[in-house]
Amino acid sequence: MASRQPATTYEGETREPLQGPKAWVGPLILDEELRSERQPLRGLYKLTALLLLIGVATDALEKLFGVTSAVVTVQFFDIQGSQSLLTWFNSMLFLGAAALAAVIARDDPSTREFDTWSWWAICLGMLAASADEVIGAHELFLDYLRVQLHMVGVSHYVWLLPATMFLVGMSVWFIPFASRLPVSVGRRLILSAMIIGGGMIGMEMFGSVIEPAIGADHAMMTVVVAGAVQCFEMIGVVIALVTMAYYIDANDIRLRLSFMASNDPEADYRKPPTP
């Protein structure tokens, strides 16, 4: 079992990690570790919440109440639309998280080789998710399988079984990796993965239960299931992005461009002298 290590503050001091519920709720309320000089990151939470609220509201107005007078607005904030603002914003969130994971993998001098490959794996996963948000590759693949295998009714969701097994397998790798990080960072990344993966699988399972009763084309299926999946994705990736930004800043990780790097690798990480 990995030993608990003190969290690193922005001032370079160490302190005991947060205990109890606050250690887990912290990523959602932005505890004191993230408040200082991190207004843009706090604003990212607020912007994400605002876009999700508008998206769910416009989708509900159209699907549940038949309000179509503002068609352009509805399409612009469509939760499932590949060209909507929400989809592109979510794609950029995944892309930003991929970039931060790449910075940590490439430029964190304290990362062991195995963990470096783990950060690269996170980077590739975030890149794939970013592309999938725009092109909808997994929806196209699942639709093709459902047609070819004549998957109807409850069998429409049979893909949840291998998806769940995949998530369990990934957790065998991810949890030990996260446990080697500072406690607050590791817990936030685990929480992020639980929200993204668990939220998606959980809501799809909920859909498989209520679909036989209300029908696949019922407006509630779209608003509740699809809307909740999108909410879980965006909230989870924002937590991951903010956590990695905090980790980079707390550990003074600096992006080194190859044509700017000096001959002394350690020199690129040393802080400039204080005037």
Reading side by side through the largest sheet, how are the strands ordered? 1-2
Total individual domains: 1
Strand content: under 5%
* DSSP strand count: 2
Judged by helices, strands and strand pairing, the structural class is mainly alpha
Extract low-pLDDT stretches.
Answer: 1-37, 259-271
End-to-end distance: 43 Å
The chain-level mean pLDDT equals 71
What helical percentage do the residues reach?
55-70%
Q: Please state the overall shape, judged from the principal axes of the Cα atoms.
A: globular
Number of helices: 10
Gyration radius from CA atoms, angstroms: 21 Å
Question: What summary fits the major beta sheet?
Answer: 2 strands, antiparallel
H and E string: EEHHHHHHHHHH
Kindly describe this structure.
- With 275 residues, the protein is mostly helical.
- It has one domain.
- A two-stranded antiparallel sheet has the order 1-2.
- It is globular.
What distinguishing features does this structure have?
275 residues; mainly alpha; 10 helices; 2 strands; disordered N terminus
Write the layout of secondary structure elements.
Elements: E1 7-8, E2 14-15, H1 21-29, H2 32-35, H3 39-63, H4 71-76, H5 85-107, H6 113-135, H7 137-148, H8 160-179, H9 183-214, H10 219-250
Antiparallel strand pairs: 1-2
Brief description of this entry?
The protein is mainly α and 275 residues long.
